[in-house]
Amino acid sequence: MKRPDHQALADVAAGQGGLFSRKQAHAFAVSDAALSHHTRTGRYVRVRRGVYQLRGAPIDEQEELVALWLATDQRSVFVDDTALVLHGLSDAMPARIHMALPPPRARRRLGERVVVHTRDIPAGDRTWVDKVPVTTVRRTLADCARGQVAQDLVRQAAEEAMRRGLLEPDEVRAVADELAGRS
Fold first, then answer.
1. What is the pTM of this model?
2. Residue 182 — very low, low, confident or very high, per pLDDT cuts 50/70/90?
3. Using CB atoms within 10 A as the burial measure, which of 61, 74, 120, 165 is most buried?
């Protein structure tokens, strides 16, 4: 039987804001019984179902998002206006967190503020912002232009992305065409 490797688990958690999933713990031979024991003794803190944090881990501004990503077995990606904020293209903090999971997605509720979309996001449309997966700037703007995000907000985000060199002019035109199709 493999011995629990708490240090290797802590090393993985360190790159995730001190957070780790039950599945990740199992990969390092940390059993459910050991998770329960270390939660009772204070080594780990249960953050949500299947997600734990190392005691004393520094507070991270993306902690909630990392915990949600871990709760989906690392299958989700942040999308829509949540992705706009993560890319720094919007100051308008959305009231809800938008995530996409590939089909078939789990029916587990992730919280009242979380909207889970069933979408298969190809690898080429994914990137990372700090510790969380997010749709690329191009994909984010295209999804927002097709979706429920205010047109003015999408236009401003596209202009900001172009100003910062995150998009080419033809990509901005494609977003503008999507917005024109919504009118």
1. 0.87
2. low
3. 74
